[in-house]
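Morning. Coffee machine broken again, so started the prediction first thing and wrote up yesterday's gels while waiting. Chain of 172 residues, entered below exactly as on the submission form.
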Amino acid sequence: MITKQIGFDFNADRCVQCHACEVACKSLHEIEFGVTWRRVTDFWEGEYPHVANRTLSISCLHCGDPACEMVCPTGAIFKRVDDGIVTVDQDKCIGCRSCFLACPFGVPQFGMNGRMQKCDFCVDRLVEGKEPACVAACPADALHFGTMDELSRKKTEKASHKLLSPFLTSGR
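Came back before lunch.
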């Protein structure tokens, strides 16, 4: 049983589409050209004339029940019990790409060595008490991390403050 699940929170309304999160990830991990562990994607929603451009910054979601882990024939992919980070043992990976087919988010990436790689939540930085590189690099404060309980509590507090703010500032 996972003792505490950590995750990312992305606020699309704050994102300025600078791609600093992508660059920080690629730079820190020395990721080769064509491979992306975190990607910023723009998409359009709505119908003309009411169309909006939205942005999504996504990496591995470190799923509660990862499909990639379930289909890996060698056990190279596993979810850490202490924090829920889904990791890849490069020495065990045979590059069969079953994980890619199983992942609904298209997260698994394959470089020149043919083995699966993906966001590792900057686990080395976490051990040092630092934020993941993508979070630390975001100039617009659009990307956060924490335990799922912390992230949920912050979202709830923010939503209730937003609902109550007209009453709090009206002098009633």
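Residues 147 and 153 are 10 Å apart (CA to CA). Going to sketch it on the whiteboard this afternoon.
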